Amino acid sequence: MSLAISRMMANVKALEVIISYEFQQPLLGGEALQLAGNGMSSIGGRHIPNGNKRLAVLGDQVLNTVLSNKWYESGMNESDWNAIRLQVSSNNNLWRTGVQFNIGSVLQGNPTNPQRVSEKIMATAVEAVLGAVFRDGGLTAVERVVETLGLTNDGALVTLNPFLPHPRSRLLCINLGL
Q: Residue 128 in contact with residue 55, Cβ under 8 Å?
């Protein structure tokens, strides 16, 4: 086993502890940790020319599915859904989540050109992790990881948040009843 693969597998194990989820297919977790431009072009025979970005697209959609399911069950109206989606899936919120859970410590960038983990890179990584969990364990597994990461904040998503773009959203208090 190469040094890069050994390091990736160690980082997957660390990620599993962070998100309280054990991958049945650890290479999916490894793919989620690959930053674009790090030199790794394939994992387990799967071509990954842009690191974790394809999993991030999937993870973004899966996060919206988890949130919209909770929104639907709550009986809230459509404008409430928009406020939830804007806040929870924003790059800033995903970045804060990644920083809080120290996901940056397991990301694999270009070792010859280390870069600061920007808000966008961290948000992409969190989305990629959700995408990997979905591919590995399905929707129920992602719901558990979303809860573990606090992306639904134990039910209260928004309370007087001045960073939301719409004035109605700033006054909204949403409970998804988790």
A: yes
- Burial per residue of 92-117, b for 16 or more beta-carbon CB atoms within 10 angstroms, e otherwise: ebbbbbbeebebeebbbbeeeeeeeb
Beta-bridge mates of residue 175: 156
Three-class SS state of 103: helix
Consecutive 10-residue runs of the chain (178 residues): their mean pLDDT? 82 97 96 85 82 95 95 88 91 96 90 74 97 98 96 52 39 39
**Per-residue model confidence (pLDDT) at position 147:** 94
- Distance CA(74)–CA(94), nearest Å, equals 23
Sign, CA torsion 55/57/133/113: positive
Maximum Cα–Cα distance for the chain, whole Å? 55
Q: Is residue 135 exposed (0-12), middle (13-18) or buried (19+ Cβ within 10 Å)?
A: buried
